[in-house]
Structure formats: C-alpha cells, structure tokens
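Protein: Vomeronasal type-2 receptor 116-like
Species: Mus caroli
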Amino acid sequence: MFIFMGVFFLLNITVLMANFIDPRCFWRINLDEITDESLGMSCAFILAAVQTPTEKDYFKKTLNVLKTTKNHKYALALVFAMDEINRNPDLLPNMSLIIRYTLGHCDGK
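Structure follows.
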C-alpha cells in the first residue's frame, strides 16, 4: 500500500511544482509586455468566422495595403492562409474566415 502511495506521490510532483512555477513565469511575461516600446506602433487584428461567403477579392485590399516588411510578414502569411482556406469549400463548409483591423498602423507606414 505504501509503495502505491509513494509512486502516486512521485507521479504528482510535477503537478505540485507547476503550481509554484506558473505565477512567477506569468508575471515575468507580463512585465516584458508592459515595457515593450513597439506595442503601440503595431497592428492589431481579429480573426472571425462568419456564416456568409466572402467575395473572391476580399483579401486583395489587405495584400495591397500591407508592405512586406519585417513587422508584417506574419500578417501576410496569415492572410494568405486564410485566403487559401476560404477558396477551398471542403475545409470550412458554409463558413468563411475574415480579418478585422482594430488598432495600430495597419497600412504599413
């Protein structure tokens, strides 16, 4: 019986340690985000899934407005992937992915 209790305790050590480690790491991440100077100058966007089909050239404006800079390369990759998903009706039937820009300088300036 004591062997089973010992094995059970050893298996749960990582769970017990995770409770002590997470808050400090989370606090460190939050401090880094607050002191980051470039957050106010970035572009924020929201992904949404809608039940209506989108136009074929929905992302044309986005791809023409955003410049291919270091800051926008991930957004361009995301837009390209969303465009490919929207063109294939087998991936998301009866739904479309759209992107909405909310904050920041999304025009690449």
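Remarks: Confidence is low (pLDDT under 50) at residues 30-36.
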